[in-house]
Design goal:
By secondary structure, this protein is α/β, with parallel strands linked by helices. It folds into two domains: about 160 residues; about 270 residues, 3-Layer(aba) Sandwich (Rossmann fold), CATH 3.40.50.300. Helix content is about 45%, strand content about 10%. The protein has 16 helices and nine strands. Strands 3-2-4-5-1-6-7-8-9 form a nine-stranded mixed β-sheet, with helices on both faces. Strand 7 and strand 8 form a beta hairpin. The radius of gyration is 28 Å and the shape is elongated.
Length: about 450
């Protein structure tokens, strides 16, 4: 007697996770419903749960949301005894109250699809055996080919009617904080999943230090940060993190090894620093490395690229500015693929070297790379500012809040300590119109500012 194929060998947890993925992922549901037979499921309450999803899709032409399923399960379910109804409701309560998403989603999808497609192919082959005797070769070919086509990826994108419920679901940005309360308040909590943040500064002004500060804050929040360095050695970058997290001066780190280790050994977050020689790595190189980390089971919560201008373009174009634009577009795309924020930096042109406030007009080579970024802030520090550990930050672009704001900053590079301070009379909102108007605004603003003496 032929044994009935089912998911029983994969266990109860696998089957429950599979149904949760089907409920939450409409494109995957479209794909697997072509090959999924409810008899493959070992547990009756899961069979019934899937039937509810299928029934809703067939009746309304759209995929049910969790809120919709809650409404359905609250009502009396026909043709189901009380025990099955209770088990379905208990299962739904568990998946809704879970604080974490299903682990290994890609693995679950791959195993389930492979199993179901093989069962459909077996059915087609058994059906073909009878046809061989009647020499219906064309029919045999059609049956086998149709079976092979079932369960392929048929996601054509967001479908207006089928995905109706999705438009009414609250979507979380899950932003990662910057550690600067002022910026977090302006950006609604920081940079969110799939968003690109850019720090702009002239050489030596502290853009790499700012990136370390952002990474260190994420680590302190218990997140995993992947920091790509295209300019400095891995150990130099890691030492900067030591200083930023512990507050120990960089020139004292080596002499206070035990103190450093004592303060970082119990961190909930994780840091991975990967060095590539300047211009040797492209965004594809970074993607390959990130995929390798994911296969090792690493959760990637934030990516830092120090800095984007030093990446090698995937395609060599006629002008350098076009290559830079494509690099920043690819970084934004990478943030969306890995569903985490990416921070990078860009260098100003010569006009930014001694500017008191750096605007987007001072961005080196490719102004258009500003268009793809979600948040841009600049750091400007004159020679006098560096002596006094002072400077200014200008919010040049902010998709999630106000921009055109100037703030005084405190920056001590000896221990990577950076603070964005509240606005003073000398640092108020900057309205950028034309270059001439902007220059006049700054001239009038800082005339009083310098006369009074201090930025803080």
């Amino acid at each position: 007697m032929t044994e009935i194929a089912s998911f029983s060998k994969y266990g109860k947890k696998f089957q429950e996770n599979l149904i949760q993925v089907i409920l939450d992922d409409r494109p995957f549901a479209d794909q697997i419903f072509e090959v999924l037979d409810t008899s493959f499921l070992e547990l009756k309450y899961l069979k019934s749960f899937v039937q509810l999803i299928k029934g809703y899709r067939e009746k309304y032409g759209s995929h049910p949301s969790r809120d919709t399923m809650l409404t359905i399960l609250r009502a009396e379910i026909d043709d189901e005894d009380e025990l099955i109804q209770k088990q379905m409701r208990d299962y739904f309560t568990r998946i809704c109250s879970s604080e974490t998403n299903v682990e290994g989603v890609d693995h679950i999808k791959e195993v389930a699809l492979d199993f179901c497609k093989k069962q459909k192919l077996k059915e087609a082959m058994i059906k073909s055996v009878k046809l061989i005797q009647s020499s219906s070769y064309e029919e045999i070919s059609k049956i086998i080919n149709d079976a092979l086509k079932l369960g392929v990826d048929n996601n054509i994108g967001y479908e207006y009617l089928k995905d109706f419920e999705e438009r009414f679901m609250i979507k979380a940005r899950n932003p990662v904080g910057t550690g600067w309360k002022i910026l977090d308040s302006l950006t609604k909590g920081g940079i969110g999943r799939g968003e690109l943040g850019v720090v702009i500064a002239p050489t030596g002004a502290g853009k790499s230090m700012a990136l370390v500060h952002l990474g260190a804050q994420a680590i302190l929040d218990g997140l995993t940060v992947v920091h790509y360095t295209l300019e400095l050695q891995e150990t130099v970058v890691a030492t900067r993190y030591d200083s930023c997290i512990t507050g120990i001066d960089l020139n004292e780190i080596y002499g206070r090894k035990k103190d450093v280790h004592e303060q970082i050994k119990n961190l909930d977050g994780k840091l991975i620093v990967k060095e590539y020689p300047t211009k040797s790595a492209s965004t594809q190189t970074l993607r390959n490395h990130l995929e390798k980390l994911k296969r090792r089971g690493e959760n990637i919560d934030m990516i830092i690229v120090d800095y984007g201008d030093l990446l090698r373009p995937i395609r060599y174009l006629k002008e350098r500015r076009n290559e830079l634009e494509s690099i920043y577009e690819e970084l934004r795309g990478m943030a969306q693929i890995f569903e985490c924020p990416i921070w990078t930096a860009s260098q100003t042109n010569r006009s930014g070297l001694n500017a008191e406030v750096i605007t987007m007009e001072s961005i080196s080579e490719a102004f258009n790379k500003c268009f793809v970024a979600d948040f841009i802030f600049t750091i400007s520090r004159t020679i006098e500012d560096k002596v006094n550990n002072e400077g200014r930050a200008f919010i040049a672009k902010n998709r999630n809040g106000p921009d055109g704001l100037v703030f005084p900053i405190f920056m001590d590079t000896k221990n990577v300590k950076i603070k964005i301070l509240p606005q003073t009379n000398g640092a108020v909102q900057l309205v950028t119109k034309t270059s001439k108007q902007q220059a006049q605004t700054l001239k009038e603003k800082y005339k009083t500012f310098k006369k009074n003496g201090s930025a803080t």
